[in-house]
Amino acid sequence: MTDPAVIAEQWLSHLAVERGLSANTLSNYRRDIARYLGWLSEIGRTDFSKVSTTDIENYVAELRRADPDTERKPLSAASAGRALVVARGLHKFAVAEGALEVDVAAEVSPPQVGKHLPDTLSIDEVAALIEKTPTDTAVGVRDRALLELLYGTGMRVSEAVGLLVDDLTQQDGVLKITGKGNKQRIVPVGTHAQEAMEAYLVRARPALSQGKTHAAFLNTRGGALSRQSAWGIIKAAAERAGIAKEISPHTLRHSYATHLLQGGADVRVVQELLGHSSVTTTQIYTHVSANNLRAVWASSHPRA
């Protein structure tokens, strides 16, 4: 008998050691695997070799259904699709390792996901977001530096809070960013971000530091700033600027990409700057730019 739980632990170990996935990504994989294994247990599939394509199709369908008895809400198409990706990865690994002869998950299609264009800010809104952040305290200087760096480089919030002091003091106009899967990329840093970071490192960080960590961005207790706290800084800045749009931790990243494309940057250059493994991921921003072009045309052309 092939125990799916054993295969799952082997796969997670492979992802951590061979693929070098981050702890956060591995945690998400572990959660989705646990959900899939729980489903297999519910339908009596304790032998992995007995799982069928229909079982997996039913699993995806079940994820999309609500359960009034347990008050479980249905997963969105995107979330169910990610759960399927994990289940398919597990089966693919089992076949590669010789534990299974046939990959019954390979042909299972994910649920259709409607195209969602990421929320972005205008250039004026970004300016207000940053400039309305006061710099009369160490915390304010830190917040301004974080906002400038996020918009100036397009890095993820998780990448920003993972920076070390040495990463910033040795930049010389560029910054080496460690992204998902420990992949590194080089991005240019503009003068606004450089000046904000210099002010933070000289004036603010020494006031916050208690010698606890080499993390670049610190909280008020001298420890490393968390992703949740960084997200709170972005949200508070949006409120100060009077921005009513939906704001997410990635809003400045989305705005960075959109403004580059609107300015004439090539989509493959933006792909490299964002650290996307596929240009397909980056191309969603070209839809945003096309929408903006249509809006300008509609308001300007006499025969629109």
Low-confidence stretches: none
> How many DSSP-defined strands?
2
Overall mean pLDDT stands at 88
The level 1 CATH classification of the largest domain is Mainly Alpha
Query: Describe the biggest sheet?
Result: 2 strands, antiparallel
What count of domains describes the coordinates?
2
Distance between the termini: 67 Å
What class would the helix/strand composition place it in?
A: mainly alpha
**What oligomeric state is this?**
single chain
Measured as a percent range, the helix fraction is: 55-70%
Q: Which overall shape is indicated by the principal axes computed on the Cα atoms? A: globular
CATH topology of the largest domain: hpI Integrase, Chain A
Reading the helices and strands in chain order gives HHHHHHHHEEHHHHHH
Question: What strand line-up does the widest sheet have?
Answer: 1-2
